[in-house]
Specification:
It is an enzyme of class 2 (transferase). This protein is of the alpha/beta class. The chain is built from eight helices and 13 strands. Bound molecules: the ligand CSC[C@H]1O[C@H](OP(=O)(O)O)[C@H](O)[C@@H]1O and adenine (ADE). Adenine (ADE) is lined by residues 88-90, 161, 166, 184-186, 209-210, 212, 221, 226.
Length: 294
């Protein structure tokens, strides 16, 4: 049994969370560089909480420039056990309307200009992301959203695009009609893959802000509309977060789905061929299986 420590990665429009006991912004450096910002830590109902604004306060990072590896490493390094992404997304489904939440359970990764792994030459590893989100953590998010009176959809496929431009009409139609995606955003990949490599449970709560560009009755997406929808629904996000500690509890049992043991059989590089510099960089992410430097 360990202590639950919930990490929230706040997306566009979410740069702070309220209501923490003993709140403190702390600066963390990682072998992968600086995270997007300092991390706000504190307690909520007796459970440790950490909040990291994905784009930084003041929104300085584009979806491509977000330091995804540093963000996940920093959360792991301070002891976070469960990471919840709260993001804005466009919807490909009539019934997933602006203001609704979607508990994402699958991804199509169309990003191409980002570092996608902690591993590499000198320490090669392959983890499974067949089920990229944690069912236990996702179920807690679903319950929290329902308890908060939010219209929430249980499951959905998130298409992660590179951006920063929104999709063309042809792309929007293809993702929706041929590829079966339900929502679209620019940030949950490689974040989810990196969380799996770091043996962190990861859930994605996506708030629908628009119908992208496919919908005949809605104009094309624009950023002011997205931010207006986000601001108009910010209380919902806060209400959901407030309920999470009670649902997850302070004492954490091992993940029944194995998220916290994802590296058990993943590392291929023979111990005597491992690069010591890589080993040092992986101290937080893979220390459980590689051993931590003395
Ligand atoms: C604000 S418009 C597009 C921008 O919003 C979403 O960010 P996040 O996922 O961090 O909430 C989307 O992915 C784009 O990065
Ligand atoms: N339509 C959209 N496409 C990509 N990212 C988004 N974030 C919010 N709405 C979006």
């Amino acid at each position: 049994m360990t202590d639950t420590f919930i990490g929230i990665i706040g997306g566009s429009g979410i740069y702070d969370i309220e209501g923490l006991d003993n709140p403190e912004w702390i600066g963390i450096e990682t072998p992968w560089g600086s995270p997007s910002d300092q991390i706000l830590t504190g307690m909520l109902d007796g459970v440790g909480m950490a909040f990291l604004p994905r784009h930084g306060r003041g929104h300085v990072h584009t979806p491509s420039s977000v330091p995804y590896r540093a963000n996940i490493d920093a959360l792991k390094r301070i002891g976070v056990t469960d990471v919840i992404s709260v993001s804005a997304c466009g919807s490909f489904r009539e019934q997933m309307a602006p203001g609704d939440f979607v508990i994402v359970d699958q991804f199509i990764d169309r990003t191409f200009a980002r570092e996608k792994s902690f591993f590499g030459p000198g320490c090669v590893a392959h983890v499974s992301v067949a089920h990229p989100t944690c069912p236990r953590l996702s179920a807690a998010c679903l319950s929290a959203a329902i308890d908060a009176g939010i219209t929430v959809h249980d499951g959905g496929t998130y298409l992660a695009m590179e951006g920063p431009q929104f999709s063309t009409l042809a792309e929007s139609k293809m993702y929706r009609e041929q590829w079966g995606a339900d929502v679209i955003g620019m940030t949950n990949m490689p974040e989810a893959k990196l969380a799996r490599e770091a043996e962190l449970c990861y859930a994605s709560v996506a708030m629908v802000t628009d119908y992208d560009s496919w919908h005949p009755d809605h104009g094309e997406v624009d950023v002011s509309q997205i931010i207006a929808t986000l601001m108009g629904n910010a209380d919902k996000g806060r209400a959901m977060v407030r309920r999470l500690p009670a649902l997850l509890g302070a004492d954490r049992t091992p993940c029944p789905h194995g998220c916290d043991r994802a590296l058990d059989h993943a590392i291929l590089t023979a111990p005597d061929r491992r690069d010591p510099l890589m080993m040092a960089r992986l101290d937080a992410v893979a220390g459980r299986v590689l051993g931590r430097p003395a």
